[in-house]
Every structure is written in C-alpha cells, then in structure tokens.
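Q: My collaborator sent me two sequences in one message, no labels, and asked for predicted structures for both. Can we handle them in order? The first one she listed is below.
A: Yes, handling them in the order given. First sequence, followed by its structure tokens:
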Amino acid sequence: MGPRRLLASLSLVALAVAACGCSSSSSATATAEHRTATPTTGVPGATTTSAPSATPTTVPVTVPHAPGWTSALTTLPPGGGFTSVSCFSDTLCVAAGGGTTGDGTALVAGSGVAMSWDGATWSSPSVYFPAPAAGVVTAPVLPTLACTSGPLCLIVDGSGHLSSGDGTNWATPLPLSTPPALPADPADPGPGHPGSRTAAVSCPTPSLCAVVDNTGHTYTLRNGTWLAPQSFGALQGFGTAAVRTSLYQGGRVGVSCPTSTSCTAVVGTTVLDWNRSSWSAEAAPWSSPLAPGSTVPVSIACPTVTLCAIVNGDAIVVRNGDKAWTARQTLDPGRQLDSISCPTRSFCVAADDTGAVMLWNGSTWTGPQQVVPAATEYTGIGVSVSCPNPQFCLLMNADGDYAAYTGPAPAP
C-alpha cells in the first residue's frame, strides 16, 4: 500500500493519529561520525557564550523550494552538531547539541550548547554543560530537549544528566537518580561505546516531564518533584535459563506526553505507558519485531491521550483508542524516519535522515519533500522537527541547516 494513502482501511481518526508528533522525542540518535571540537569552558549554572552570534545564511547546497517551507538556511553548529530542537511558538525555538557523540574517552568534544531562535535569528550559544578539562568524558552525550510554557526547557542526554532553563539561562547539570538495577542486556556494549547511550524527554506542561533512556529506565518529574525511577527489562534465553535483563536499544528512543497525566514511550520493540502514578510495559506493537539491540531509531508522537504513532525506519504504526497497534506500514520507502511531530490529530510532519519531510492532513500523507540538505559533517545524528501548531514547524539537521514551515495546514 502506497505512503500517500496510508492505512486507508482504518477510520479517519485512526489515520489522523499517524500525524501525531514530538521533537523531544525528539531524541538523540545512535551512531554519529564525529568532528573533534575545541572544548569551551563555562561556569555551571550560568549563561556562557562560546561563539559570536550565529547569523542565518543561505545553505551552499541548493535544495528545491518545497511548498509551505522557507528556503533552507544554516547556523553555526556546536562541536558534535545539533541533536534536538523544540519550539514554544513561531517566534521561540531552542536547539541543543555539542558535547560528545558517544564515542568514548578517545574523542572529547566541546561543551553542551543551546541556542534560541526568535523567528529571524539565532542567539549566541549558551553553555549549559561545560566540557571536562581533562580525563574521562563527562560532557553530555547526544543531548535532547523539550520546552513548554513558562518558558521551561529540560535537556537530557545519554550520560544520565539533566539541565533545566529558559532556553538561555541554565541550571547546573545534575545526574538523574539511580534506577533499580537489572542485569545488562548482552547486546549492550556499555557506556562509552559509540552511540551506546541515548535518551528522550517530553514536557507537556511545567507540572510533568518524562524521561526515558535506551536501557529501559524511566524518570518522571511531577509537580516539581522527581518520582522514584523505574527499570524495565526483557527476557533473554529460554525455559529455566531465561533471565530478565535491562532493555537495550542501540538507536534513538522516544517519549510523548499529550497531557500532564498521560505519556507513552518506546524503547526498541517495547512500549511503556504512564498512568498518572507509574509506568508499565504493554505488548509489543510490531508485526515483525525488531532485532534486540537494533540501531534503527524510533520516534513517537501522541497528539491526544488516545492517539499515538511511532515511526521506525521507513515505517509507521498507529494506536487508536484501545491498546491495539496496527502492523508496520511503509511510509517513506528506502529512507529512515528520524522524527515525527503532530500538534493536532489532523496535522503531522515526519522527517527523515535525508532532510525530507512528509505531511499528514488528517487523511493523507504527502511527500517526501526535501526541505534541507542531508548532513555532511555530523552524519548519523539525524534530523529533528518540532511543530507547536499546524501553521509552524522548524526542522534542523545536525549540521545546523534548518527550514521553517509557515504555510497553512494542507487541506484534507
């Protein structure tokens, strides 16, 4: 079945969920080629700039103009590249990156950096996580962020640290609480290996933020207090030799919270749900499960409590109303979907690793349309998209090439 009439046999409401999206999920990807960056320094808890203001310029690579999207522009990426973007509105977006790509102690990158966008230009970089002076890498690993009203932004990363701020001013990064221990998955190479640690975060309101990492740990901030973290596992082996080990997904993971009382996360082939007080695992949605430890990223978006969609490789699965998920349906043949964002049931944008997008109008997917070039310096990190409403989206690749959707939502 073609991607332009995806899931035609389902109800209109079920189709609409495929449009749901989140950039937090926005999340960091698994593997990345790394450009060594000159470490910058900063004072924890204070705003620190490490470069002149980044002025958007036309991308040297020509990209055909896509309807509804601005021409591709670029801004100076931090060492390690941009790994996540989150927008409050069409005049306030925040992008995060820098740190290390997860390649271990051999390649020390620079500080974790955030930049804000006012609808026209990007701010000077603010350092939220200073690079270590020497020794073992403690800089952030593939940071990802979520922003909500306030403004309040949380940045989490594969090193297990979290920073909070308003997009410019940041509190000192703190380690997340230690979750209950489970035996390591045999496929997990452990911290310090390329792409071995990733995380995702979602904050629908200041009263709730949810964090999930690729080893199956969940962390929940509710009304200003972090609840006890939880750990989820999977059975390895058979019969009496079976052992429950921690979950492990070598690629991007995702979490989406449509309200302050509901969240859904995806780690590899496992889906986790938050029910106001705790997380629980549900049956795997995939008709053809991914191999354990797969590096194929996943991203999830839930525009409402009852509607969620997961993009995985070139495919999508949808949950509508009940706990049943559709089988994987090809959406973007031959490509890899990195991110999905849906502010409503009837508008979604899914972005792939080449810088192309597909739009959902409530009944049909259109595209792919190329809106930014594929990354050439920070390859493998992925593309991030954030849509605060159906009239505006911002998409950015790891090299700092970005474009905004400013057209009306496509007619169904």
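Q: And the one she listed second?
A: Here it is, processed independently of the first:
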Amino acid sequence: MWSAAAWLRPKWHRTPTFPDRGAPGGISVVIPSRNGRQLLETQFPTLLQQAHAVPSEIIVVDNGSDDGTAGWLADEYPKIRVILSPVPLSFARAVNRGIAVARYSLVCLLNNDMLLEPDFFTALSLAFDEVPDLFCATAQIRFPAGVRREETGKAVMAQTTPDDFPVRCDEPLPGEDLTWVLYGSGGCSLYDAGKLRSLGDLDEVYEPAYVEDMDIGWRAWQQGWPSVYVAGAVVEHRHRATTSRYYTEAELNRVLEVNYLRFLVRAVDSPSLFRRLWQEALERQRKSGCGPAPCEAAQLIMDGGRLVQVRVAEEDFLALTDGSVALFPGSGTDILFMTVEHLAPPPADVLTRYKAVLIARGPLPRLAVQLAARRWPAATLWQAAGDEPARPLRTT
C-alpha cells in the first residue's frame, strides 16, 4: 500500500523565485508571543542591547494574548512594532505575519523563552559572510542549570535506535563551528529573508507547532542553500514555556508525530526515500501508540503537498547532515578532510596547519567537498584517513 502511495500522492512542483536582493542590510527580529509578557520582560533587556548594535527592528506578533502584552509594549517600548491577532495562531501563521512586514535582508525567528548571551546577532550575521548561499544560521541552545539539555542547535537526521524519533540534536564538539545541519531551530535562527520568502515562508499546515522549521530547512537544502550551526551564538531556552501551558505532554507528542508525517508527504521528493521514511515512521508510531489512525495517515498522503523543483539530491544533503560530519576552523591556509572512526576534535597542531578541518565518520560526503570548494575556492583540498599522510583530494 505505502509503496504505491509514494508514487500516487498528489504533488506539484514550482521553482522558487530568485531571492530579492533589494532589502537593506540588517536584521528583522520576529517574536511570536501568546500570554508571554513575563517572558518578554525577562528577554528584552539583553535583546534590545544587542539589537541596537546593528541595523534592526523588533516585531512582536501578539498571538491572542489576554495578559496585557500589547498595552505594556505600547507603554514601555513604543518603537517596537506589534502585530495583533485576536485569536491564537499556530507558530507558522504567527511568524509569517511578522515575516510579511520585515524590512531587512535577514530575519531572526526568536521564541519569547530564549535568553540571549553576548554577541548573539554578531555571530549569526558573520556566518552569512563566511558561507556562500547560506539560508540559515542557527544558535547553540543551552538549558538552565539542572535541566536536561533537550536541544543543542546541531540538528541531524539520525537515530540511536529504530524506536527513536528520526531527528535529534547532537552535542557539539569543542571547537566545532559552522558545521552543516539539517535545519535551524525556529526559535533562535537567522534566515536570508529573500530565500525564505522565495520558498513561501513557513508552511502553515503544521498546527499548532513543530516540524515547520525542519520543513523549511529541508526545502532550502533541496535548492542547495545550506543551514549551519554557529557555536558563538548562544541562547538559554526555557523549554516549552508557552506550549506546555496549553497542551499536555501526550498531546504535544502526538502533534509532533502527525506533523512529521505531514512533512514526509509535503517535502520529501524522492519516492524511494519517502517510502522508507514513511514505513519506518509508521512502525515506530505503532510501537509507541502516539501516531495517527491508519485512515488519518492515508488522508495525509492523499492531501499531497507543495513540493518544489529539487536541485540537490536529498540523499546527498542527508549524508552531510546525519551526524557523521563536523567542521573545525583553523589558522592555516588549506582545507583538510579527515576520515575517522569516531568524531573528535582534531589535534591542535593540525588546526594550526589548515584553515579548516572537516572530519567525517565513514565515507566522505561528496556534497561536503562541493560546498568546501565553493567556500574556499583558492585553497587546496587535502584528504587523510587514519594514520596515512594527507594527499591532495581529487574533486572531479
């Protein structure tokens, strides 16, 4: 049944329009907030201090609040733009309202439960100077003392066991920076506004939240637009400070699983990849008991999706964002690719000899070589495996 569905699901392709380059340089910060006045009061002092250091604007989407958020903002922060919604909107619908009025070339999506550490915007912005065609720069996510770290910013598509959710956050290695990731967290990431709009902004089918950030990151990779993890941009996350007030843990888990199935239908282009991921998801959900009923799953398939024309094979960017690759900046001139058994920071003497060192557990992803050659066109690419001496890497 599902094999046939991979081919029969309705889908339509459109080519994204070329990104608009006319927006002035700067950052538009979009914050959705539902009854989050207390969270904003905690967040704003540091946020405003950092935002004033760059051309910027702050847009708060007051999302059906009844805690006086709009009045407080008007009194205390009259320069902040407030978009009012009388009823609660999904995360995607709320931030899309903010994106629609954003004036600057970069858009930061920021949850109201994120506390910024110094140089947050500076570090994210610099990534766009370093990485060609960058779509998204995402921050390192920490949690309050004593709270288990559920997110890190290094999002990869991988499982420890078949029963795990297929996407996880890996613990970044010391010194790792600008490693490619599957997508940036919708709560603390900076996006190229033109590319974001060309993809149609966040897909509003994902109700009430979850997976919409993975969907847009996936679509960007299909166009060859990377997302990277930025070690120097750090936030502390008061996890689910809003959603946990309105939904139980069981409800949120079910929302996650249903939206993941929607993502597979709407974003995954390859029929064989869709079939594999769909079958794995249904088996995992059957064991956990938190997935949709078979008739609901079938309806998700028949609803189809807004697939776009794919320029980079999904298997290629998945090989780059499955947790087997890490990138380390150095101080030399050339680029070294190291094939290793276990991911670990390169020795200090190696980092002094190379501008960047990429370590890969297993076969070297060909997309990594292509992206490195694009980023460092004048550098010589070298490859080393185990104790073997480095040798020039053939890129043809």
